[in-house]
Amino acid sequence: MAKPNKKGPLRTVDVYCSRCKTHLFKYRKGGKGSLVKCFKERINEDYTEQPCICPGCGGEFARDVLVRGTPAYKIIGGKAYAK
């Protein structure tokens, strides 16, 4: 499998917690689909203190995984959204 493009897309989206609406990070997202995974190398600004834990409500919104050999956060369904 091919690795994701390091430079990535130029369009950024803001990722928020679904429960408490806390701003989690700014992410360079490609494509029109919903937010399923976030490659760590594409995160511009990270507002979380602990990985995958919301600073506002303390809930887990993602899991730390390897996708195609690249570290990423796999978003748990409905726990975070992109705007």
What can you tell me about this protein's structure?
This protein is mostly beta strands and about 80 residues long. It has one domain. It is about 0% helix and about 40% strand. It has strands spanning about 10-15, 25-30, 35-40, 45, 60-65, 70-75, 80. The strands form two sheets. Strands 4-2-1-7 form a four-stranded antiparallel beta sheet, with no helix packed on it. Strands 3-6-5 form a three-stranded antiparallel beta sheet, with no helix packed on it. Strand 1 and strand 2 form a beta hairpin. The protein is globular and about 35 Å long. The N and C termini lie far apart (about 30 Å).
Rg on CA atoms, Å: 12 Å
Distance between the termini: 29 Å
Q: Please tell me what the overall shape is.
A: globular
Q: Any idea how many domains?
A: 1
The run of helices and strands is EEEEEEE
Low-confidence stretches: none
- What is the overall pLDDT average? 91
Q: For the largest beta sheet, what order do the strands appear in spatially?
A: 4-2-1-7
Total strands: the figure is 7
Please, what is the oligomeric state? Answer: single chain
Largest sheet: 4 strands, antiparallel
Bin the helical content: under 10%
Strand content: 35-45%
Helix vs. strand class: mainly beta
Number of helices: 0
Supply database-style keywords:
three-stranded antiparallel β-sheet, mainly beta, 83 residues
Q: How do the strands and helices of this protein lay out in sequence?
A:
Elements: E1 12-17, E2 23-28, E3 37-39, E4 43-46, E5 62-67, E6 70-75, E7 80-82
Antiparallel strand pairs: 1-2, 1-7, 2-4, 3-6, 5-6
